[in-house]
Amino acid sequence: MSTSDLYQLRLDAFSNEYGGGALTYRYYITLKGESKRLISKIADGKIIKRFDKTGVARSGEDIVCPHFLELKWAYGCPLQCAYCYLQGTLRFQPNKKSPKGRRIDEVQEAIKRFINEAKEPEILNSGELADSLMFEGGKYSLSKNIIPLFRGTPHKVLLVTKLDKIEGLLGMDEDLKKNVIASFSINSEPVASRWEVGVPSPLRRIEAAHRLHEAGFEVRIRLDPIVPYPESKWLKCYYSILDRIFEKFTPERITLGSLRGLTSTINNSRDRSWTVYLKERSKWGKRIPFEQRFDIFADIIDYLRERWNYENVALCKEPVMMWEALGMDWKSCRCNCTW
């Protein structure tokens, strides 16, 4: 039996679930190759469940993704980004990716179960199936109905957004701010103008991030998806947007991701003009070719280091071989969704 087969048998053994109550645990293989007992889901996993679709990273083309907890309080997004993966992920929903909130009482009950039973601090990602700020100011507001439940706990709610609806967050007291991580997805101005329809401009998003940073929130940036557009000056455009960020504040961390498209995303996209850049097949859909992605990441990482003396950078949904080619330690990955 090969080493790979033995490893898979070991993984299968660790995948047996233990629980029986409101909270279920599983043994997961960490990036360091260790087995660790972690929360798998609350009840049926409809609202709180660990994201583990990327499998186990070992080498080569395996995707590096520390498995995080999803807080599925709502789904959908009001924005119309041409390359949005929710177009594929939510294709079987009656209203596709149109925003929809879950019953507030069910979400709150799942969170209370989690808080009562979770033994270790966790980050709950509220923006995997929705824009975290899409219902701010309304009935399903995250800042009003959900975040206050975490007061006094060691857990944090990760907000992932392209919106600038931050007034509800700015009204929070200092203690509650400790339970929030705000992560803004930002792109270059030409890319945002071309493919992010109905989205606040990158400069508006930067200003919202700056205001939260000034108010005492932990703020992260996702430069994702990076697209080499327009061909003649795309790199300068990304340098420019990074300059605008650092002229305002220093993010706690920056996660870089390149344009990618799962088959389900591409098939359900109305505007597929962005797919011309996807010329390589991988374990996470079609991608920009490896060599070009390497140059993209290397150039931006070098610029952050040389221009802004900044090195707290990670990659999103990239394989082990990309991390290693860039000389980055994937086993100690601290990307957007992790501590």
Describe this structure in words.
The chain is built from twelve helices and 18 strands. The protein has helices at residues 3-14, 86-89, 104-117, 142-145, 167-170, 174-177, 189-195, 202-214, 234-248, 263-267, 290-308, 320-325; strands at residues 17-18, 23-29, 35-42, 48-50, 69-71, 74-75, 80-81, 100-101, 123-125, 156-161, 180-186, 196-197, 218-226, 254-258, 260-261, 280-282, 285-287, 313-315. Strands 4-5-9-10-11-13-14-18 form an eight-stranded mixed sheet, covered by helices on one side. Strands 1-2-3 form a three-stranded antiparallel sheet. Strands 15-17-16 form a three-stranded antiparallel sheet. Strand 13, helix 9 and strand 14 form a beta-alpha-beta unit. Helix 8 (202-214) runs parallel beside helix 9 (234-248) and helix 9 (234-248) packs parallel to helix 11 (290-308). It is globular. Residues 1-20 have low confidence and may be disordered.
List the helices and strands and how they pair.
Layout: H1 3-14, E1 17-18, E2 23-29, E3 35-42, E4 48-50, E5 69-71, E6 74-75, E7 80-81, H2 86-89, E8 100-101, H3 104-117, E9 123-125, H4 142-145, E10 156-161, H5 167-170, H6 174-177, E11 180-186, H7 189-195, E12 196-197, H8 202-214, E13 218-226, H9 234-248, E14 254-258, E15 260-261, H10 263-267, E16 280-282, E17 285-287, H11 290-308, E18 313-315, H12 320-325
Parallel strand pairs: 5-9, 9-10, 10-11, 11-13, 13-14, 14-18
Antiparallel strand pairs: 1-2, 2-3, 4-5, 6-8, 7-12, 15-17, 16-17
